[in-house]
Inverse folding.
């Protein structure tokens, strides 16, 4: 038995606790511990501290006398399971981590994707958007006397967007993007039929320059490189702004490859 | 220095002052004594013994105040860390076992985390010793600090000397194991 189980913890009264208080003793005792090294590794996870304790089985088990008999069997059946456990679960952890890494960026980038879908409506030029946002700040003032603090609480976040507008950017991609046919043709004819998209992730810095290109969803090295090559050429971005201040932001963009 | 003057200092100032003059530690001692005492008591279930260990912990803390640096964790976390280590020091040296109070495991949120249905509570209670036996002391501490003491993962990490993320991952891993043990034994 590693632990001594009790059904109910004893009740403590504040008086009980107070009775144990003795600051003078602590002060006196402090000198004893002066040479003692703190932060000992007694409670390290994975340590075998309890191994030595197991011997002391004489303590009375209040609740689980019956269960103890089956205990060893259960331990045996579980032990192989437990050894294999860390390996599988570490994978899960990693996945979680990478997910966490991606998700916030996803949020930031959705407007770009959304805008792309609304292409027919004609996206507004960036300049107009910014002025609107600036107007939004003083707007509430005449309606009622709002204190400065109230206004600041409303964060205005504008995502990075291509300049002068999204259409130009998409046209540019269409124009520049080349299906890497020559390279592929060397290998096999059937590969020419590859269609799909490369999801590229990149950063737009405060100066409106795109950098730090990374492929999130790959379509093969040739396609990845082509997609990044084209995106890198386009260096005309309006940086994202947070309360009117330019900030670095991350964008995600899908470059579609189609056989014409 | 009068008592009134002492109480005007902030906690960090008091710690700094205590490094010079141990008397300055008294307000902090009074403030945290009960908290530390309860932490120790829940593990030893003996008032006198808990008193001894708590005093020992404060003694160690007082003699090592120089080691304490404010890193975003309250003094209570540092004290808890020392107290817990003192507890396990005692368990090991005296070949004693840590007490586990089972009622906590049916009355706290952990019941929901392990997904125990209302009609399974009795069964869960009888199964508990067997299930908890499989946990290492530090794992048990993770669960108890999190669910019974209600500490943040950051603080637990600090107390157990692991990272916050690690504390979190391990806690949920343990819960998963508890759940699995329970389901397997009942099915």
């Amino acid at each position: 038995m590693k632990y001594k189980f009790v059904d109910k913890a004893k009740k403590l009264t504040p008086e009980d606790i107070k009775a144990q208080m003795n600051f003078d003793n602590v002060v006196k005792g402090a000198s004893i511990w002066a040479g003692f090294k703190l932060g000992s590794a007694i409670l390290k996870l994975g340590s075998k501290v309890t191994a030595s304790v197991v011997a002391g089985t004489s303590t009375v088990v209040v609740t689980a006398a019956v269960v103890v008999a089956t205990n060893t069997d259960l331990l045996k059946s579980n032990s192989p399971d437990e050894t294999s456990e860390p390996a599988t679960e570490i994978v899960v952890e990693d996945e979680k981590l990478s997910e966490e890494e991606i998700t916030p960026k996803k949020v930031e980038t959705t407007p770009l994707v959304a805008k792309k879908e609304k292409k027919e409506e004609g996206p507004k030029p960036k300049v107009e958007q910014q002025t609107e946002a600036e107007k939004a700040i003083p707007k509430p003032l005449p309606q009622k006397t709002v204190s400065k603090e109230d206004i600041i609480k409303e964060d205005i976040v504008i995502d990075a967007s291509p300049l002068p507008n999204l259409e130009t950017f998409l046209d540019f991609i269409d124009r520049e993007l080349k299906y890497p046919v020559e390279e592929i043709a060397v290998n096999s004819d059937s590969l020419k039929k590859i269609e799909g998209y490369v999801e590229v992730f990149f950063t737009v810095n405060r100066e409106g320059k795109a950098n730090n290109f990374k492929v999130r969803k790959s379509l093969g090295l040739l396609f990845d490189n082509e997609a990044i090559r084209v995106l890198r050429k386009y260096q005309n971005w309006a940086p994202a702004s947070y309360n009117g201040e330019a900030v670095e932001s991350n964008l995600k963009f899908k470059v579609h490859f189609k056989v014409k | 220095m009068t008592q009134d003057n002492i109480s005007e200092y902030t906690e960090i100032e008091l710690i700094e002052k205590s490094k010079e003059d141990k008397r300055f530690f008294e307000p902090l001692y009074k403030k945290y004594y009960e908290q530390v005492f309860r932490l120790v008591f829940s593990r030893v279930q003996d008032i006198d013994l808990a008193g001894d260990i708590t005093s020992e912990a404060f003694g160690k803390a007082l003699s090592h105040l120089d080691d304490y640096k404010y890193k975003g964790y309250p003094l209570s976390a540092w004290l808890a860390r020392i107290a817990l280590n003192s507890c396990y020091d005692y368990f090991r040296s005296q070949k004693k076992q840590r007490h586990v109070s089972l009622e906590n495991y049916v009355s706290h949120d952990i019941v929901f985390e392990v997904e125990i249905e209302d009609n399974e509570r009795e069964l869960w209670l009888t199964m508990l010793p067997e299930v908890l036996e499989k946990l290492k002391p530090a794992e048990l501490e993770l669960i108890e600090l999190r669910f019974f003491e209600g500490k943040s993962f950051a603080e637990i990490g600090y107390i157990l000397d692991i990272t916050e993320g690690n504390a979190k991952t391990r806690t949920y891993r343990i819960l998963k194991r508890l759940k699995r043990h329970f389901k397997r034994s009942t099915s």
